[in-house]
Amino acid sequence: KAGVTQTPRYLIKTRGQQVTLSCSPISGHRSVSWYQQTPGQGLQFLFEYFSETQRNKGNFPGRFSGRQFSNSRSEMNVSTLELGDSALYLCASSLEVGRTYEQYFGPGTRLTVT
Amino acid sequence: AQSVTQLDSQVPVFEEAPVELRCNYSSSVSVYLFWYVQYPNQGLQLLLKYLSGSTLVESINGFEAEFNKSQTSFHLRKPSVHISDTAEYFCAVRGFQKLVFGTGTRLLVSP
Asked: Which residues pair with B14 in a beta bridge?
């Protein structure tokens, strides 16, 4: 089975611009979560989607949004980029069998805001 | 709310020496614990997990972790490390529909 894929892998944007990141989960996985990883804050939960519905959201401003499509692929969008948004954005998918909530991560998208 | 503490930000060790990476958790619900490893410029890979049953869990590459409920710990151990084990290791506990991660421990293995 193919793993979680994320596109693009690297991205450079300017302050004030917006960006869209894409994530394709493992085939059959219906839950997709997004995390932001920075040296200062570590791994922080952004949001989680299941069957096209956002089930949980972390403590991030409204500039961060996401969605999930019927094929479970997910996108996250950041509007009005700030320098502090520079980070590695990780997507993870889960089969949601029982209560294990075992997550599998993609390689991430490295976003640099200048 | 769930939380994870990894007290050691960096652990230097010589090749073939044993290592222990410490993890303590706080959870008010059923505990599901995970160790992930992140190699440079890569995403996180699941190393091992504790869901229920035996408190000692093992990975395919020689790591093991022991769930200790009384000490609320889930320390990661390896009896003999290799240069290729150099990476950052994250302990995580399952929260409400998300994983709550520790701040990570960088394992530096030198010859």
From this structure: B110
Closest CB to B98: pick one of A4, A48, A100.
A48
Q: Is the CB of residue A28 less than 8 Å from the CB of residue A46?
A: no
Strand partners, B49: B34
* Interchain proximity A42–B44, CB inside 8 Å: no
The CA distance from A72 to A93, in Å, is 9
Q: So what's the pLDDT on residue A21? A: 98
- Inter-chain touch A48–B44, beta carbons under 8 Å: no
The β-bridge partners of A71 are none
* B94 and A CB contact within 8 Å: yes
A47-100 pLDDT, tens digit each: 999 989 998 899 999 999 999 999 999 999 999 999 999 999 999 998 875 555
Residue B45 sits at φ, ψ, to 5 deg, of -115, 135
The closest CB to that of B43, out of A99, A102, A106, belongs to: A106
A67 is written with which tokens? 């969605």
A74-78: strand order across its sheet = A5-7, A19-24, A74-78, A64-68
How do residues B55-66 score in pLDDT, each as one tens digit?
888 888 899 999
**Residue among B46, B50, B80 at smallest CA distance from B65:** B50
The reported pLDDT for the residue numbered A98 is 55
Chain-centroid distance of CA A50 in Å reads 13
